[in-house]
Structure formats: C-alpha cells, structure tokens
Amino acid sequence: MHIPDLLAKIADEVADDIGKGNAADYIPALARVDTGLFGMAVAELDGTVHGVGDWRRPFSVQSVSKVFTLALVLAREGGDRVWDRVGREPSGDPFNSLVQLEHEDGIPRNPFINAGALVVTDELAAATGDAAAELISFLREESGSPTITVDEEVLASEAAHSDRNRALAYFMASYGNMRTPVPEVLDQYVRQCSITMNCAELALAGLFLARHGIRNDGTRLLERSQAKRVNAVMLTCGTYDAAGQFAYRVGLPGKSGVSGAILAVVPGRCTVCVWSPGLDARGNSVAGVAALDRFTTLTGWSVF
Amino acid sequence: MHIPDLLAKIADEVADDIGKGNAADYIPALARVDTGLFGMAVAELDGTVHGVGDWRRPFSVQSVSKVFTLALVLAREGGDRVWDRVGREPSGDPFNSLVQLEHEDGIPRNPFINAGALVVTDELAAATGDAAAELISFLREESGSPTITVDEEVLASEAAHSDRNRALAYFMASYGNMRTPVPEVLDQYVRQCSITMNCAELALAGLFLARHGIRNDGTRLLERSQAKRVNAVMLTCGTYDAAGQFAYRVGLPGKSGVSGAILAVVPGRCTVCVWSPGLDARGNSVAGVAALDRFTTLTGWSVF
Amino acid sequence: MHIPDLLAKIADEVADDIGKGNAADYIPALARVDTGLFGMAVAELDGTVHGVGDWRRPFSVQSVSKVFTLALVLAREGGDRVWDRVGREPSGDPFNSLVQLEHEDGIPRNPFINAGALVVTDELAAATGDAAAELISFLREESGSPTITVDEEVLASEAAHSDRNRALAYFMASYGNMRTPVPEVLDQYVRQCSITMNCAELALAGLFLARHGIRNDGTRLLERSQAKRVNAVMLTCGTYDAAGQFAYRVGLPGKSGVSGAILAVVPGRCTVCVWSPGLDARGNSVAGVAALDRFTTLTGWSVF
Amino acid sequence: MHIPDLLAKIADEVADDIGKGNAADYIPALARVDTGLFGMAVAELDGTVHGVGDWRRPFSVQSVSKVFTLALVLAREGGDRVWDRVGREPSGDPFNSLVQLEHEDGIPRNPFINAGALVVTDELAAATGDAAAELISFLREESGSPTITVDEEVLASEAAHSDRNRALAYFMASYGNMRTPVPEVLDQYVRQCSITMNCAELALAGLFLARHGIRNDGTRLLERSQAKRVNAVMLTCGTYDAAGQFAYRVGLPGKSGVSGAILAVVPGRCTVCVWSPGLDARGNSVAGVAALDRFTTLTGWSVF
What we know:
The structure is a homotetramer. Chain A is an alpha+beta fold. Chain A has one domain (3-299): DD-peptidase/beta-lactamase superfamily (Beta-lactamase, 3-Layer(aba) Sandwich). Chain A has 14 helices and eight strands. In chain A, a hairpin with a 4-residue loop joins strand 6 and strand 7 (261-266). In chain A, the strands form two sheets. A five-stranded antiparallel β-sheet of chain A has the order 2-1-8-7-6, with helices on both faces. Chain A is globular, with a radius of gyration of 18 Å. The first copy, chain A, has helices at residues 3-13, 28-31, 65-75, 99-103, 114-128, 131-143, 152-160, 163-174, 182-193, 199-205, 207-210, 224-237, 243-249, 286-299, and strands at residues 39-44, 49-53, 59-60, 149-150, 195-197, 254-256, 261-266, 270-275. The interface between B and C is medium-sized, with 17 and 17 residues. Chains A, B, C, D: Belongs to the glutaminase family.
C-alpha cells in the first residue's frame, strides 16, 4: 500500500483510541497536554518522510531519548564497556523501581529503565563532558532540524520532580556505579528528557537503526551487529513492563516515552514515530500502540 | 553460504565451547549425559534438513516442549482465552520462581516459565483429556517420526523430583488458576518434558513457526498473526532469565531446555535446532547459544 | 483490681469494638461464626480461672495451636534441633507468604507463620508418629477437659482449602526441608488447627508459659530458659505481620488465630485468652487486641 | 549477685568471644578500632553505675542514637504523629534496604532502620531546627557529661559515605515523606551517629526507659505508656534483622549500633550498655550479645 494512504487508513482506524488513557501527571508541563492529539510519521531509508495528523507538532521526547544516548555511547571507542555497568534483560518491574537494583548490587537491568539510562548518561557524560549537548547535536544532524533544543519549562518541571531519579542515582553511587557526580548526571539526564521534537524529526533521527548503523550522511555510526543489538534491546526492554505485550501485538523494536511518543524500527525498511499523549497503565501511548499494531498488521512488516 | 558448509564451519568455530558448562543435575538421567556432545540441524521451509555433529542423537526435549503445547492451545477454538490465565511478559526471575506468582495473584508471567507452562498444560488437558498424548501425536506428524515417545527413565526421574513444580501448581490452585486436578496436570507436564527427540526432528516439528502457521502437510495450525505472536513470546521469554541476552547475541525467537536443546526460528526461512548439554548459569546451552550466535552472524538472518 | 471486676470493666470498655472486622472467610465453618461474640478468661498460676462473656463457648484454635506444638517439640530430647530448620525472626510478610521461603532457601522465618508451623509439625510427626494426637493429649491434660477434640466439620473444610499450605510444604520439600511425606504433615497440621476449645481451656493449657515451664501437675515441660524463649518468639512473631504493633499496644507475648482467639502470657503471673471473631486486616481479632490493650493498661502488667 | 561481681564474672565468661567478628568497615574511622576491646556498664535506677573492662572508653554511638531521637520526638506535643510517617513492625530486611520502602509507598517499617531514623530525624529537625543539637543537649544532661560531642573525624567519614542514606532520603522524598530538605536531614542524621560516648554515659542516658519515662532530674520525659512502647519497639526492631534472635537469647529491649555498642533496658531495674567492636553478620556485637545473654541468664532479668 502507498504509505500516505496507509497512514490515513491507520489514523482512521485508531480514531476511537485517541483520547483514551491519561497524560503523564507527574509534572504540570506534561499533564496539561491535550490527549486528543495524534501524529504519526514514517521515514523511509532514503530520508523521505510521510505523516498524518499532528506529525509536525512538537512534544518532549522523554524516554525515547534513551535509545539515542545508548547508541552514542556504543558508537564510541570501547563503548561496549557500558555493559559492565548495566544489563540487557527485561526488568519485570516498573521503569523507576529500586527493588531490582538492590537485589542485583546496583547494576540496572537494562539501559531503558531510568536507572540504566542514568548509567548510560553517566558514561556519555564521563566521555564527552556534556551528554545532553552531544545528544542534541546528533539529533539536529540526523533530523536536519538545527533548532531542536530543550524545552526550558519542561526542564524546570522535570528538575523539580526528580527525587526518585536522584534516589536511583545515589543508590547506584553507593555501589560504586556512578563515575560523574550525581547532580551533574541528573542535570544532563533531565535535559535529554526535555528535548522537544516532532514525529517527523524523531523518525528521521532513528533511521540509522533501520539502516543497520548508517547515518543520514552515509557515514557509519554503529557496526551492523551493534545496530541489530540496539534493536534487540528495544524489542525486549523498550516499552517498560509491557515489552512482551508490545512484541506480541506490534512485533517491532520500539521505545516509548511518557509524553506519549513511540519510535519503532522496521529493520531494512523504515522507522515509524507515533505520538498521542493518552497513556495506558504501563506508561505507553494507547493510540500509539494501537496505530503500530495496525501498521504491522496492514503491512506485514513485523520482524516475526 | 551452502547450509552444510555453514554448519560445518559453525561446528568448527564453537569447538572450544563444547563441553563448557554443566549438565543439569537435578535428575540423574540428565546429569550423566556427556557434555562433549553437540548437534545442530537446520530445516528449510520445504522440509529439507541439514545437520552436523550429533544431530541424530536423541535427547529429552524438556522445556522446548512448552512452545508446542502453547501452539496447540492457541490453535484450538477459543485458545486465546489462555491469556486470561497467563501473561506475556518476561519474568525477570528464574524459571521456577514463586515470588512473581505471589505478587501477581497466581497469574504466571509468561507461558515459558514453569508456572506458565503448567497453566498451558492444564488448558490443553482440560480441552483434550491428555495434553501429553496430544503433543506427542503432533510432534510425530510434524517430524515424520512415528516412534517419538516419552523416555520412561527420564519420566520416572522427573516425577520423583517434582516437588517444586508441585508447589507451583498448588500455589496457582490456591488462586483458582488450575482447572484440572494438580496431580494430573503434573503427570502430563512431566510426560511432555520427558519426550525424546533429536535435532532433526525438533527442527522439522517447529517449521510451522517459520511458515507463519502452516504445518508440514500444508494445513494451517495457526493464523499468520498467531504464529508471529508465538515467535514474539519466544523472543521475549524463551530463554529463561537470559532472553535479553539471547535477543542481543542471537536475535532470533528461541526456546531452550535444560537438556541443552534450543529451537530457534528464522521467520520465512528455516528453523534451527542445536543441542549440547553443557549449560550456563541461566540454564541455556553454552555451545548452543554460541552456535546460534555464529549462525546469525554468518547468515545475517537475525530478525533485527 | 479484683480480676472478675477487671474483666467486667474490660468487656464494658471494648463493647464498641465487638462486631468490628470480619470473620475469616476462607472456609465456611469460620465465615459463618457470629462476629458479635466475645469471651475472655484469665488463668492464675494456681489454676484459678476467671472469665467474662462467651468464655466457655468453644471455637477452633487455629494458629494458637502453633505455640503448643512448638513447646512439645522443644520439650523433647534434642528438640532444639528444630532451629536448624526454621528461623526465629519476624517475617515482615503475610503469614502464608512464599516469597521469604524462596529468598531464604526453604527455611521459614519463624515457627508461627504457616510454613514454619508445617516444619514444626513435621518434627513432631517424625518423632511421635502423630503430631495432632500428641497435641490433643497435652491440651486435654493441661486444661483438665478430657473431651477436647477436633471439629470434624472444620477439619473437612480446612482440608478442602489447603492448596496454599500444600504449596508451602512441597516448596520446602523441594529444598529438602520436610522429613515426613507432605500429605501426612498436612493432615496433622489441619487437625491441629481444627481442635475446638474455649477461652478457659486455652488459658489453662498455656499456663506452663507463665510458670516458666512447669505444667499443671507440677512436672516440668520446658526448662526455664526454654519457656522464656517461647515467650520471646510469641512476642516477636506471634501475631503475624502485626507483631510490632501488638508489642507496642499490648506488650505481652501473644499468639493469635484466624478464629479470633489470642492467647497472651504474663510471665510469672497469669495467662489471658480472649476470643472474638471479627478480624482486622492483618488477621488479628479487633476486640481481642483491644481487650488485651485495656488489660495491660489497667493492670500495668506489660513486660515492658 | 552483687553487680560488680556479676560484671566481672560476665567479662570472664565472654573472654573467648571478644575479638570475634569484624569491625564495621564502611568507614575508616570505625574499621581501625581494635576488636579486642570490651566494656560493659550497668546503671541502676538511682544513677549508680558499675562497669567492667573498657567501660569508660569512648566510641561513636551510631545507631544507638536512634532510640534517643525517637524518645525526643515522642516527648513533644503531638509527637505520636510520627507514626503516620513510619511503622512499628520488624523489617525482615537489612537495616539499609530500599525494597520494603518501595513496596510500602515510602513509609519505613520502623524507626530503627536507617530510613525510619531519617524520618524521625526529619520530624525532630522540623520541630526544633537542629535535631543533632537537641539530642546532644539531652545526652549531656542525662549522662552528666557536659563534654559529649560529635567526633569530627567520624562525622567527615560518615558524610563521605552516605550515598545509600541519601538514596533512602530522596526515595522517601519522592513519596512526600520528607519535610526538611534532604541535605539538611542527612547532615543532622550523620551528626547524631557520630556522637561519642562511653558505656557509663550511654547507660545513664537510657535510664529514663528503665524508669518508665522519668529523667535523671526527676522530671518526666515520656508518659509511662510511651516509655513502655519505646521499649517494645526496641525489643521487636532494635537489633536489625536479628531482633527475634536477640529477644530469644537475651530477652530485653535493646538497641545496637555498628560501632559494637548495645544499650539494653531492664524495665523497673536498670540499664546495661555493652561495647565491643567485633560484629556478627547481622551487624550486632558478638561479645556484646554474648555478655547480655550471660547477664539475663545469671540475673533472671529477662522480660519473659
């Protein structure tokens, strides 16, 4: 099917799901977003982007940023050493749980729960001095949008509600699993979460994962095997405690954020970014998951 | 690469891993198997099978049986109702843990941990009267080996060491999540685990998962979407508490057993069965995982 | 204060608490007991008993039996070896939890949670052949009531609802922490729980704990230090996950049962048995705890 | 027995236990203390103190301070409101665990685990501005030692190793269970732990608990019922995850610290402070517990 038609059809079919669920309510800047919004974009390997609905409306990327930070760490010389500090297994616990950390001596289960993302941010911070700046620079280049930046209001709100993440970071520090001072890591972490982008930009920025590691300018960010492995981690760990359910329904590597965004990868074909702020009980966009479910059903492009 | 050459190359490359790890020691019949054995078979969509090493030597299928039992339940009218009784999320706990069950009111995390497999067996038992007989009949037909049967010595050994599974079953019964009397479910469960097959037979029996639901006789066992979903559950939950690691290294849906067998699926291409009794700390075959890692690296046939 | 007057005053003061809470509902025989009942008895060291309300009305002793079984085990030659199989620490979990058992390799936290009591019963069963018969014989002698026996209706009900306890027992068996076959231990365990007594009889039967180990006939059951230690375990572990709260409010060693009975010990002075079927969320009698709270406040006889 | 003779006899009997175990090693100031030291003091109700061994040698009070902070909070108008923020149940987990906090929504199990003591410190800080100053003032008055103060070296060491406690505090803050800014609470908390006293001083300072709430100057700090209740919390929660074992062996309310100190209370009779730096696996002084065990055995002064 022609992709624009496909997107129109999907938007139509998920109309009833838009507005379901609740916006994340832990910070005001997210809580007051209209849950009736819905956008979806598909980026093809050559950089062509198609979209539907609010696909050009910006939102904060939140945890979708985690997949890029991980890729930037792995792309660096010796980046694989990050796996000494964070695991690759699904957590079986909510994204901000400390229980697992205590049972496993301060080693987070995977890089996509908050504790793991703090470790990855710490790695990038230790290597570059400023993980958030590094990330923004990469996102601007890949998406071709030089104005991508942090939303200062969201940032202030995040910073004011970071006690839980602070606890996670100090807890890991107590096990010797923090290299940079905790306040600095936290600052860079919340800056990453507060970056504002739209569906088109996120889909473009993620294309290197569909291209087995090749960036939009043709250079290689990740080895082929590394790119596959990032996809594997997205599939097993990318949607919080619903990764099994997401694999079952959608069957694609995906990473979600509490703003209602989900970035999914069809290896060798395209990326898909969908955004709708209403979340289900596990923190994933209701309409977003439904749209991706329709997408793989209509195209047959699940990895399975 | 020509598959026979590929298999020879893999066998050569993993030679150092063969013999590593320990055979499962909870029952004598498994403990005394030679960890120096290694077999691998690839079954193509048309039923052609290639093998290397001990690929025709029989072993007990153990937990690899769980994927077939699940498929047989899902294939039945209303089979999806099994998902009311068992989840689809990775467990984050060892395969025989009771902790999660207690926190989640007697609903096992997924059909591939022991508790979940007991529920699936119970469903098949309730529907057919004899889950093990149903399974054996299916395995015989798909593999073309009419003599496939239970190893009575392994069965006796399993039955004599089933206190933990018995505890799991009664625990679920206490939450109302058992339909058949516990002793009967346990009996059928251990019979399934004690079925003896070789790599070629298992690879053939699993081909319906590579063929999107179509059996060897051309009839449909599962809907296309159901087959994809079984593959998704294998990828996220099929290798105990190492599913993330397996997805990362191998990148294929796979189901392992404590006898050292692993059945992996390349959707649309083939199945692979590897067997070597030496297990790593998480219960997966050391040489088996290494061989599958080589397989996807050499062929590029990871799903990612 | 004169004890009969004291009891009358307490009954008056807790009148508003009688009927609060819910009767245990897991078996019909307990669920239909009138929560408006209330009885209380005090047994002095010389065997004089005073009572108020329904103090002569029989009820099933349920978990109050656990303290006697423990004492009978400890009284035997080498009885202290039971501490190799069960701990002495408060559990921090509900009385029938399996979580702790798994984290601590099949060793229950203390003898008063169900798992621990199963171990203690197993010890007595292994030593005597019939733990329940041994217990009944002891209770008859101490209370001077030769007709004390099991309520067959309660027993049948308990036996039909014992999946959880069966799971606990098989789980411990899987760790090698069961000497007698599980069905036999369970049978003797539920028989103990189903013994029927009244407040006067229970208070009399417990007097050896107030007399530092001396039975009603003047012979010694336990060494002085052993009797003190049983009291210590009652105080730290006797009221499920509310032992801290009970120590705080009441300040006496006590053991409760889901029938609404509580046996408390004032070392060197007396025993108190109170019964009222309405339970709080943690399984202790609402009016019973309130009455004991009044008792220690009015007499000053807390151990602290 | 004459108390000086008793103390001499105990010191003699536990000679073999002195030096066993290891000094706390998380901060250098504690790690290098000689484990061969042993001191014990008994304070009678009238303020007479007897001692043996190193009973006049100062050590940092560490967690023994927690019992005084709790008493100072309870002594204040409305002090009972602290129980809305912290429980009174034994924890069943190590003293610095976060697991329980997460399962129980940021409410620590009891005031004697670190998380609970941070809440109690927060209460005193919120009420007085400086919890540590308030505590030091109280300890000086009760012990008659106006020079009691913080050991600055220990303080610096504690402050430099407080990531875990910082994690606990931020974690509770994320549940809204911190009133004072976390850095301030932590500062006052580590100051309390770093106070230096000797056995005689601690025994004197704790006499109000043996006198049912009456201070050394005859004024009342706590109501009689409050004093009993503090003793109850000490007995059920005062010795970390070994409270049941301590109640069983010693049978007295007691509070231990990782410096090897234990303060025990014989209600209506005396207090006992014992100190020896070698700790068992659960963080209690090996020789200290042995000495208290001998003490209650020889005197018969257990509360049971």
